[in-house]
Structure formats: structure tokens, C-alpha cells
Amino acid sequence: MSSPAVSVESLVREFKGGIRAVDGLDLQVEEGEIYGFLGPNGAGKTTTVRILTTLLRPTSGSARVAGHDVVSEADKVRRSIGVALQEAAIDPLMTGRELLQMQGALHGLKRPAARERGTTLLERVGLVEAADRRVGGYSGGMRRRLDLALALVHRPDVLFLDEPTTGLDITSRTALWREVRALNDEGTTVFLTTQYLEEAEQLADRVGIIAGGGLVAEGTPADLKGRVGKPTVHVLVGSAEAAARARTALGRLGEVQAEDRAIPGLVALPAPDGNGSLAPVVRVLDEEHIEVESIEVKSPTLDDVFLAVTGSKLEGADGA
Asked: pTM score, two decimals?
């Protein structure tokens, strides 16, 4: 049986003043997974990633990446990972092609191999036409795609992406998602930190939520959402009087939720069959001649999960 791609046990990182940014963290990422790592500001997310990528030493505990200890085998870890961090420094006076060839040389590729690898990656991330332009003139989306290409030069086993689509428009974001999925399909393990819950839901096989330096929830997006609630049918009618009639009628199908005083025309009840629960609801409302403004099935979101386990919304969630 293969070892996990990332394994963290009782990880602690203290800073001056006894502040524990990471406090006894345990997590495991299997080979071939896309693992979404979420947390509010100050939760220890960035510190964890910096430890896993050998940029910061832990105070205690252990972490292994691609089978190598991040402290005693830091060089082996660095050869096994690709890293695209938000604060990565890129010389704006160099071209994309020059940067990729330089990255190849740093990883020990001879000049012809570095040139060939750079050309392949430029094609992969859609930057062929901009390859010989200075990076200082790249858009945000182009720069993030170049970051990804630079992280892939040496064909890493584990790819760390730190908020890869922050600030990008939806077209650029979707293109980057597509590339991340393709890399994962080829066997690359992806450790993804993001402030967009939609991104985690679209990409991640499993999600871990960190708060106060420790993991407070972990599981597939579907499992996590199932823990905080079930789907419900939301019926919106035009008046409080119509809502009262709807509550009485729909009570025959299931327990109607308490009245929402903020939205007097809203009636909600369980939807055990998801969208399949709509038909009987519509039939009852039609039989009672209750006019409806809208009707839909609503399911819990990762935003609901995040709020439930951390007590706050994730920055950037509303903009996703």
C-alpha cells in the first residue's frame, strides 16, 4: 500500500509571545487526491502550507510530503513538490519563456531539455502567444497560469496551490480549474488553499477546514453539507395570509419549518427526495388554489458548513 502524499501528525508552530498558529494539527492527503484546505484569516492555514513546502520549520510534531520528512529531508521534499504561492516573486522584466527555461535549469535540466519543457508548458497553459513578452505586461490570469507552469517544470508528485484564482474573472478562473483537473487526472496530487467555497466544491475530493490552528471539519463536500442540514423546499407566496394557508396544506407532506418573520411569504419544508419532492408540493398548492411566486429546492452549501464549524463566513465566499 502506498504512503500518503501528505501526512501531518500533532503539528505545532509557535511564534514569539507563545502564539500558536498551528496547534496539534493532524491531517492526511492520499495520493491522487485534490484536497481543499479552507480557513478564516489567522486560522493557521498559511503557516501550515509554509511548513509543508519547507519554508518554515515546525515547533513540534511531524509532517511528511511525498514520503519525505519536511525537516530532515527538506531537499527531497522540494524536489517532489511544485508550489504556486501568492507571494511568489517573478522578475517582471523577464519573458515567460525565459522564466520557464531558468526554472528548468534550476531543477537540473540541460538547456535543450529546459527549452523543450518550457515550450510544452507554455502550450499547456495557453501562453504561447505571450511567451516572449515581458511578464510585467501580463494580466492577472496570465500571471497565475505562468505560476502554474513554473510549478510544473520538474513534474512534481504533489502540487501546492495557494489561492490560485484570487482576483481572477470567471473565465480565467474556469480555465485554471480545467487545468488543475487535467493535472489531477494524470496522477498529480493537489493541495489547494482557497477563499472561494465554490472552488473547493468544484475541485476538491475532500475538504479540510482549519480554525484556531486545528482541523475542525473534514470530509467530502457532500458529507460535510449533509452534516449541517438536509435539502428543503422553499415556497414563496405573495402574502402572509397565503403563507398561512400553504403551511396548513403542506403540513400533510411533512413538518413545515417555523415561520420566517423576515420573509412572511416564505414556507419551507423537508425535501427528502431532493428535486423529486417538488411534484407533490406543487400538486397540493394547486389543489388549494394557492398562487406561488417561486418554488425551489435548496440544499446546504459549504458556506453553511464553514459558518457552522468556525462561526464566521469565509472571506471571498460571497464573490465566488
From this structure: 0.83
